[in-house]
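WARN retry 2 of 3 for item q-0093 after timeout on previous attempt; input resubmitted unchanged.
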Amino acid sequence: MGIKKFTDIEPTRFDSDAVKGVAGRVLIGKADGAENFCMRLFELSKDGFSPRHTHDWEHEIFIYSGQGAVFRNGDWIPLEPGCAVFITGNEEHQMKNTGDKPFRFICIIPAGPPEL
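OK item q-0093 returned
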C-alpha cells in the first residue's frame, strides 16, 4: 500500500493551441504496481481547457475543487465540487475551467492507455 500527497508529485504541464493551462499528475499508476487502473489528478488554470478528443476506453471523473464544465453530446454541462462524470468509450469530450480558481478533478482510466 502506498500513500502520498498529490503536492509531492511533479506535474506534467500541457499548453498548446489544443490544450491550455493543464497540469496532470499520476496519483496511482504502473509505477505503484497498479495493474488494473490509473488514477490521475488534473488541474486546469483560469481559462484552461483540455483538448476535445475521443478514445476507445471509458473513464470516470470526480470534481474535487473549482468550477468547470464538460463538453459531451454537443453541449457544455456545468460542473462543481462533488460532481461525478462517466465518459463512455469513443465519446467526444472536453473539460474547461469556468471559474477564477484552479479547477481540479480526479480521472480514472483502465491500465494500458498512456497514463498522461
